[in-house]
Structure formats: structure tokens, C-alpha cells
Design a protein that fits this description.
heterodimer; A: mainly alpha; 47% helix; disordered N terminus; B: two-stranded antiparallel sheet; 14 strands; protein homodimerization activity (chain B); plastid (chain B)
């Protein structure tokens, strides 16, 4: 049966939950346009710093968890350590979702009001 | 009490138009004429503004407020959900015209350091202040704004509070919306998102594998370590939910990447204002493969099932979809065969799914059932509001 119902290009290709920003071939829901539909994204410096910080925290907390659990896998310390890993991993993923898929930079409103602050310099890859 | 509310409002609107240049309008004319001022009067008397807010609980282990479920839900009501403007950039709250979604992590009594010291995970009830949660959700439900704390997931600290004004629809999302019995009583509708271990693992791999520091082992270890607390404190909440969305691996093909999903919408019977979705014949047992002569599906196809079951001692109806949509006409075809989906026009489900075609789950049962639950919640909300308006009208007739 032909898809004679020709609405906006319909692309139901399944894609990973939090795909890297370069896979922007899927239709957007028509919010404000990204600065070029490429992997480079304009984001505020403050947001970029947050993103980097979370990346470092993930690495650091995974290492901590491995160390703590190496001593005693059944300890409370071990499960708390992995819970922290989960927390920062999710926080990083949420931030990436906001920036790359939803065009909702967390600093958007603040930077519109205070464009001159250091945090609000536009960061281009 | 409800009757006096209506009267007060009408008096207010009378005052607002009693300027000398305006002609005098009688009481009845205020209600039924179509002038601008009148529209305002009827709007005030019909809205839920002076009355309680409808509260929805969503239990999910996937972070807060950014979940696609919330975005689909707020989209059904119209408008995009956005963080509060001008507030803490790390706020977890989302606000749209009709809805406010808060993250229950904001009720952590212990911040990251505190939890480390005490040796408790965020899943543990000991890390959460249920008294405050109950107080504030109750207040919002009764129309009172609250100063809600903010838990900052980046710093791991508890930040200064933000003001939450009572919306029409108040969604509380997080790990423990149904844990505390008092909070449970406040919920007009509750949903539990039940992700099976295999799918959880697949999703977390997709989420984390690109991160430096993560590997298959670390992802697995993290899930394993959290499992005891999850099983003890989070999982048992599903027995209280009015609707459970269960996400499982497909049975159509061997698929260990979690790409093709089997999704079950488990709907409790007998819930006020909630009429479960059904296929063809309510209460019967159906197995349906839509692909055939009229509809060509691409691999691996689509399979539906529907039927009555028992879930933790409750009567439920279960609608199940295994497989994925690949084309628009598949989705419309399926939508046209479902009943009790509470759409306002033919194709509304399809339209909502298309609107968010870039969200995960848009091509399978997760997106479909999340959208349908969103429509059921809208229907529930409208029924609740209608019942509140009906009560005072009944009283005035008497």
C-alpha cells in the first residue's frame, strides 16, 4: 500500500537512545534551527564546561567504584559508588539530550539576560 | 463549598466590568453572552484554578523530566515543556501551559556526600524526605504554591528552592512517587515504567558506551550493584500503578540489541475516569497481526495481543505490541483499529507520534503506549474538571 499520505518526511529508522550529535538526519519537530545541521553545535561556554566536567566525573567515579568494590563487592560503599556512576552518567546523557536534540541549552535564558559574562561566550567546535 | 466558589468568582467578574461607560449586564447575560468580558467570566468559573490540581505520578529509573514520556505527555496538552525561565539552570522542573513536571530527586534528604557517608544509594528511602514530599504535593494539589528544593545532579548538592505554582496538571516523576502511602493517596493517576533487565542493559550500553571511562563491564557492574535496592524499594511500587508500561525484548526475532521491543500496556480495571484501551472486543482475548493483504509491513513486522489478566491480585487489561512501525500508513492502520484511545480526532495518535518522530521509541510500542497514556490522562483530566463544574451547577438548580 503506497504511502500516499505524504506529510513531512517520515523516518522511523530506529536510532540509539542518546545518539551522538552527528546523526542529525532525523526530522526535527520545528523548533529553533540548530546552527548548521552538522556535528558542530553552538553552545555556551558554561554549558560546554559542565559537559566536560561530567565527562571527567564519569571516568573518575568509575575508577573509584572499581577500586572500592575490589576491596569488598558486597559492601555498602561499593553499591553507593556504582550508584554515583549511574547518577553522573544519566546527568551527562540528559545534558547531551538537551543540547543536541532539544536545543534547550540550560544557560539559554541566563545568557540572553547576561550575554557579557564569561560563561556566555559562544563555544564553537 | 463548591457553590460559594462559583458565586465569588462571578461577583469578581461583575466588579471588573462595572465601569460607567459600559452598559449594565444582568447576571444571566454575563454567563451566556459572547462578549469579551463574558468569555473571561465563563473561563474563570470553569477552570480548575480555584480548585484542586490533578496530580499524576510516574515511576521511572531513567532520570527526571527529560524523559521522552514527559515530553509526549506535555505535548498532548499542547505546548512544549521547558525549564523555568530565569531560574537555576540545573533545575529538573519542566513547565508548559497546562502542566508542571517535577523531579522527585528534589526531595533527597541526603546530598551525594551525605549518601556516601551514610552508605545509602539514591534508591534507598532513607535518602528521601517523604514528609516534605507529601506536604508539598498536597499543598500544590490544593492550589497553594510551594518553595521546592532543587537537587543538582551535576554538583550533587541541594540548591536553593524554586517556586512551584499550582498548575492544572502536576506530574511528579522519579524513583518513589508511589512509595509513601500518603503521597499515593494524592495521585489521581499513576504510571510505572517497567524496563526488563535485558532492555535496561541494552539502553545503558547505548547511553554510556561512547563515554570515556565506561566499558561493558562497568555498565554491567553498575546495574548489578543497584539491583538489590531497586528490587527492594522501587520495583514493588508497580503493584500500585494504574497503568504499567512493560518493556521487554521482542519475541518475533532473536534480537539482543534491544532494538526491536515488545511493549505491554497493563491497565488496571475499575479506576475512576480511566477506561482501558482495547482491541476489537472489550474483555475478550485477541491476537492480531495487522500485516497481510491490506497492509504490507517491513521486517520483522508487527504483532498485537489484547486480553484480561491478573496483576498482583488486580483485574487488568493488557494491550501488547511487538515489533516496529516503519511507515506512516502502518501507524494509521493500527490506530484505526484501537478503541477507547480518547483521541479528539481520527489520526491524533499518529499525529502526536509524527510530531516527535526523533524521540526514541517513536517506531514501537513505547512511543505508541506513552502517547496513548498521555491521551488517557487528558481524558481523565477533562472528566475530573467536568465533574467539579457539574457539582455546583447541580446545587444551584436545587
Amino acid at each position: 500500500m503506497a504511502s500516499s499520505l505524504s506529510l513531512t518526511p517520515f523516518n522511523f529508522r530506529p536510532h540509539p537512545r542518546f545518539s551522538p550529535p552527528s546523526s542529525s538526519s532525523l526530522p526535527r519537530s520545528g523548533r529553533k534551527p540548530a546552527a548548521g545541521v552538522r556535528s558542530e553545535m553552538k553552545i555556551y561556554k558554561g554549558t560546554r564546561i559542565r559537559e566536560q566536567r561530567l565527562t571527567e566525573m564519569i571516568e573518575q567515579k568509575v575508577a573509584e567504584a572499581k577500586q572500592v568494590c575490589g576491596e569488598d563487592e558486597t559492601s555498602d560503599e561499593c553499591k553507593v559508588a556504582w550508584d554515583e556512576v549511574e547518577e553522573v552518567s544519566q546527568a551527562k546523557a540528559d545534558l547531551r539530550l538537551k543540547i543536541h536534540h532539544l536545543q534547550q541549552d540550560p544557560l539559554e535564558h541566563f545568557c540572553q539576560e547576561n550575554p557579557e559574562t564569561d560563561e556566555c561566550r559562544i563555544y564553537e567546535d | 463549598m463548591a457553590v460559594s466558589t462559583v458565586y465569588t468568582v462571578q461577583i469578581q467578574s461583575l466588579n471588573s466590568i462595572s465601569t460607567p461607560s459600559k452598559s449594565h449586564l444582568g447576571f444571566n447575560q454575563l454567563l451566556y453572552s459572547s462578549g469579551k468580558k463574558t468569555r473571561r467570566a465563563t473561563h474563570i468559573s470553569c477552570s480548575a484554578d480555584n480548585d484542586k490540581t490533578v496530580v499524576i505520578g510516574l515511576a521511572a529509573d531513567s532520570g527526571c523530566g527529560k524523559s521522552t514520556f514527559m515530553r509526549r505527555l506535555t505535548s498532548v496538552f499542547g505546548g512544549a515543556a521547558e525549564p523555568p525561565k530565569g531560574g537555576n539552570p540545573d533545575s529538573n522542573t519542566l513547565i508548559s501551559d497546562m502542566t508542571t513536571v517535577i523531579c522527585l530527586d528534589d526531595y533527597h534528604s541526603l546530598d551525594r556526600n551525605g549518601r556516601k557517608e551514610k552508605g545509602v544509594t539514591a534508591l534507598d528511602p532513607k535518602a528521601n524526605d517523604f514528609d516534605l514530599m507529601y506536604e508539598q504535593v498536597k499543598a500544590v494539589k490544593e492550589g497553594i504554591a510551594v518553595d521546592k528544593p532543587i537537587y543538582n545532579h551535576v554538583t550533587g548538592l541541594i540548591d536553593p528552592p524554586e517556586l512551584i505554582k499550582p498548575p492544572k496538571i502536576f506530574v511528579i516523576e522519579g524513583l518513589h512517587p508511589m512509595y509513601d502511602a500518603r503521597v499515593r493517596e494524592l495521585l489521581d493517576f499513576s504510571i510505572y515504567l517497567d524496563i526488563s533487565p535485558e532492555v535496561k542493559f541494552a539502553w545503558k550500553i547505548q547511553r554510556d558506551m561512547a563515554e570515556r571511562g565506561h566499558s561493558l563491564e562497568s555498565i554491567k557492574a553498575s546495574i548489578e550493584a543497584r539491583k538489590p535496592d531497586f528490587d527492594a524499594y522501587i520495583d514493588p511500587q508497580k503493584q500500585y500503578a494504574d497503568a504499567v508500561i512493560e518493556v521487554l525484548p521482542t519475541q518475533l526475532i532473536p534480537d539482543d540489541e534491544g532494538k526491536v521491543l515488545r511493549v505491554r500496556l497493563i491497565m488496571k480495571e475499575g479506576v475512576k475516569y480511566f477506561n482501558p484501551v482495547y482491541l476489537f472486543d472489550e474483555g475478550s482475548t485477541i491476537s492480531w497481526v495487522p500485516c497481510g493483504r491490506k497492509l504490507t509491513c517491513s521486517y520483522p513486522g508487527i504483532k498485537f495481543a489484547y486480553g484480561p489478566e491478573t496483576y498482583f491480585g488486580h483485574e487488568v487489561s493488557v494491550l501488547e505490541m511487538d515489533g516496529q512501525f516503519d511507515r506512516l500508513d502502518e501507524l494509521i492502520y493500527v490506530e484505526s483499529h484501537l478503541s477507547n484511545i480518547s483521541t479528539k480526532f481520527y489520526g491524533e495518535v499518529t499525529q502526536q507520534m509524527l510530531k516527535h518522530a526523533d524521540f526514541p521509541g517513536s517506531n514501537n510500542g513505547t512511543g505508541l503506549f506513552q502517547t496513548i497514556v498521555g491521551l488517557k490522562i487528558r481524558d481523565l483530566y477533562e472528566q475530573i474538571v467536568a465533574s467539579k463544574v457539574a457539582a455546583p451547577l447541580e446545587a444551584t438548580k436545587a
